[in-house]
Amino acid sequence: MKKSLLLAVPTIALGAAILAMPGVATAADATSYQATLNALNSSSGSGNVTIQLNGAQATVTEHFEGLAATFSGKPYPHVQHIHIGAQGVCPTTAADANKDGVISTTEGGASYGAIGATLSTSGDTSPAAGTTLTVAPSGASYDYSRTITLDAKTLASVKAGTGVIVVHGLDPATLSKTAQGEKSDLVPSLPLAATSPALCGTLVASQMSTMPGGSASTGGGSTAGTEDQTLLGVGGGLVALGAVAGGFALRRRVSVNS
User: Fold this and answer.
1) pLDDT string in tens for the chain (258-residue length)
2) For the chain, which residues make up each domain, given as ranges?
3) Which of 82, 97, 240, 251 lies at 20 to 30 Å from 31 by C-alpha?
4) pTM of the model as a whole
5) The domain over range 32-206 is classified in CATH as 2.60.40.10
């Protein structure tokens, strides 16, 4: 009996110690959130976002592509936000209340809510910067990475599963004749296309902190999260080893007693 305990206990204890190490993910962890960005208003774009939380600090990593490339001869500014406080979903074509063929930002508001945080490239990240074109990611594709502070409402919405990433800015040529002549519902000095949503995705909890991959040429990908997966593999392997050792110890005990 003593030999059995000596064989089984060290391996099981080692497995438990590894699982208790800082940085080893467990099933209770939920600090990473991801969204797949799907096209709205026939934008032909796509993308993905990962938000890694550390308290109220949110490290946002994003890649999008396929959006409108230029605006008035310059790289097209695509304002983007975390929207909160509504259903936590992306709108369908049924949201197009005036039937002009475009879901405007306000028409989509019932689905994804108001701006909680602005994903700007620098400076202000509050809703007040929501339509500041000079700090918006620009061009047809973009790799975005920034750590920002979320207010209490935005943080709660993300954790509750009602946070939605919306990227704005359409190619006017893709809109109906009616919509091409309309002004923005947010900034009347701009055309409707400039502020209408182009990409949308609901943030969902992710157990692993896997960052979205950018294009190979820009180095937009990341190996973040690999360490956690490796440690999980080690911890899982040791638990399995502990089980094997326990079985071996049991067989030894039976053999000795018999």
Assistant:
1) 444 444 344 444 444 444 444 444 432 345 999 999 999 999 999 999 999 999 999 999 999 999 999 988 899 999 999 999 999 999 999 999 999 999 999 999 999 999 999 999 999 999 999 999 999 999 999 999 999 999 999 999 999 999 999 999 999 999 999 999 999 999 999 999 999 999 999 999 986 544 444 433 333 333 333 333 333 333 343 333 343 334 433 334 434 344
2) 2-25+227-257, 32-206
3) 240
4) 0.71
5) no
